[in-house]
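Please go through this chain and its backbone structure tokens and walk me through the local backbone shapes. Keep your notes short.
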Amino acid sequence: MSILKPTSALVLLMCVALAGHAAAQNNPQTPHLGTPMSKTEVAKWDLTVFPDGRGLPPGHGTAKDGRAIYLQKCASCHGDEGQGATAEDLVSGPHPPTADNPSKAIGSYWPYATTIFDFIRRTMPPAAPGSLSSDEIYALTAYLLAANKIIAESDEINALSLPKIKMPNRDGFIPIDAKK
């Protein structure tokens, strides 16, 4: 009789485990945390822009157009010329950072021009991220690149030209997740 109790308990435990496994097989959305996102909701957040330009939307802009947008939307935090204010400086010139000048401004630090577009689109302006049109973001990106003396003020950037811009610090990083 003492052998039957452990055997019965083992059989019961196996039945519970099998029932749980069968339930998981019938409902792959376990563990039922949160609410699944719709395709529209996923598309709203699927904004990744890669260094080679994948993910850039149609549009275009120039530094001249970007200067007006910058003064309206960015200067109160980053200063009238991108020199920094309550937020980080954005303009430093096209020189990679050194031990004496470890600036993380766009011209000295950022390895890819497409990252500027991606960052602005995701985060700026802080009170209304995602509110700028693609043309406005291309124009702001052009303005910041021209202010850092990486492109000419008359250069137009778009999804084809932006990934071709070689940033001064492109080779200053060691890739850890991409094969060359």
Notes: The chain has a mean pLDDT of 87.
